[in-house]
Write a structure and sequence with these properties.
The complex is a heterodimer. By secondary structure, chain A is mostly helical. Chain A has one domain: minor pseudopilin epsh fold (3-Layer(bab) Sandwich), CATH 3.55.40.20. Chain A is built from nine helices and three strands. In chain A, a hairpin with a 5-residue loop joins strand 1 and strand 2. In chain A, helix 2 runs antiparallel to helix 4. Chain B is globular and about 50 Å long. The chains are: A mainly alpha, B mainly alpha.
């Protein structure tokens, strides 16, 4: 190939790439942590936060994006809308799409100790109606989170009938997913009980992690999620 | 007949640097021990109290109402088996009749390794990777949480724990590194060969 032909080919390639829409694999992005990785000390250590966000969450995003080629319909859905249609997709989308949504919510429902505010009057009213008190909610939530066997999440959800409930899901499933066996509702607060969420600091003591975690809960975000239903 | 925690078949630091003393202290002394305690608490005073561990597992397998018993009993069995599947200075290729059987059923040792690594890496969430004998043929499988070959009519020959607690202090998110190390440095092929011979 002559040099001029090669240059012309390269120029065409550049033009072609320039005109193409953004490649589909860029569609889902890892959101940055809304605070520094050490901001949740001493409840969750900086090393755990960095590995959890950068490596685990990062891998879910990368693996979800790797599914786009085989499942082009993914590009037409928001991450949240995907959860409600997850049964239409292969298990790799369920696992990684769930992992992306679950972790994205997890970072936002936490914050530095003492900066999370309190449940709003409206939320507290709903909590009292469904559980009797905030303390009762926490007792039930702790029991569910500690008793969940294997990897998964514990949730406070608002059910379609308006009442609140505590539930848990396995692995990276969540209450938005249209899957059999899942108690569906709008997640207000989700706690990661995969061992990677706490093992470096708490090892086998999951109940200690759960008890300490309440100091991180960002009620301002929980209030916002409740009001948005 | 209360279930008991078996002693580790080697010292706590015997698998260093591949699996740390700290990991084994928690894994054996806390996790495995808790499964034993929970199981005894669940079966004491019930019709399962005097059953052997394996009879307990098969009696409750598939019974949703007995999931707690199954989970704890199976995890007691899985961990007791897992400790024996490793030894200091282990790993590498098997020899003798076991090697012949692997070559016959997988095509090659490398083909077995590829399947076993994939099973461990793709077991999403907590669980186990296995080499089992099913109807006379070797097979690689994976199971979620506490599930095990005994509940599926298979004979377990080798297992690898891929619950995060098995490797997180030493490898964090790098499960594939743990799996490679397990195969290259830890597998006790003598134990696997004895399991095959006894099958």
């Amino acid at each position: 190939m002559a040099r001029s032909q090669l240059l012309s080919l390269l120029a065409s390639l550049v033009l072609l790439l320039g005109w193409c829409p953004l490649p589909a694999w860029a569609d889902f992005a890892l959101p940055p942590l809304p605070y520094a990785s050490e901001a949740l000390e001493p409840v969750i250590d900086a090393t755990t936060m960095s590995i959890h966000h950068d490596r685990h969450h990062g891998a879910y995003v990368a693996n979800l994006n790797a599914q786009i080629a085989a499942n082009p319909g993914l590009t037409e859905l928001s991450l949240e809308a995907l959860q409600g249609q997850i049964a239409d997709f292969p298990v790799a989308v369920r696992n990684n799409g769930g992992g992306h949504w679950n972790h994205s919510q997890f970072w936002t429902v936490m914050g530095p100790v003492g900066q999370g505010g309190k449940p709003s009057t409206q939320l507290l009213k709903a909590i009292n109606a469904s559980f009797g008190s905030l303390e009762s909610l926490q007792t039930e939530f702790n029991k569910t989170a500690a008793g969940h066997f294997g990897s998964g999440w514990a949730w406070l959800i608002r059910k379609p009938d308006g009442t609140l409930a505590i539930t848990s899901t396995a692995n990276q499933d969540n209450p938005l997913m249209n899957l059999e066996g899942i108690e569906r509702g709008t997640p207000l607060l989700g706690l990661d009980v995969w061992e990677h969420a706490y093992y470096l600091k708490y090892q086998n003591r999951r109940p200690d992690y759960i008890a300490a975690w309440w100091d991180l809960v960002n009620w301002n975000e929980v209030n916002r999620r409740f009001a948005a239903v | 007949m209360a279930h008991t925690l078996p002693a580790l078949p080697y010292d706590l630091d015997a698998l260093e640097p591949h699996i740390s003393r700290q990991t084994l202290e928690f894994h054996h002394g806390k996790h495995h021990n808790a499964y034993v305690t929970n199981l005894n608490n669940l079966v004491t005073g019930s019709e399962l109290e005097n059953k052997s561990l394996e009879d307990t597992i098969t009696a409750v397998a598939g019974d949703a109402g007995k999931a707690g018993v199954f989970n704890n009993a199976a995890q007691v069995w899985n961990h007791s088996f897992y400790w024996q599947c490793m030894k200091p200075g282990g790993g590498g290729q098997p020899t003798g009749a076991l090697a012949d059987k692997i070559n016959a059923d997988f095509g090659s040792y490398e083909a077995f390794v590829e399947q076993f690594k994939a099973a461990g890496a793709t077991q999403f969430g907590s669980g186990w990777a296995w080499l089992v004998l099913e109807n006379g043929t070797l097979k690689v499988t994976k199971t979620g949480n506490a599930d095990l070959p005994l509940a599926h009519g298979q004979k377990a020959l080798l297992t690898m724990d891929v619950w995060e607690h098995a490797y997180y202090l030493d490898y964090q998110n790098r499960r594939p590194d743990y799996i490679t190390t397990y195969l290259e440095k830890l597998v006790n092929w003598d134990f696997v060969a004895a399991n095959l011979a006894a099958a």
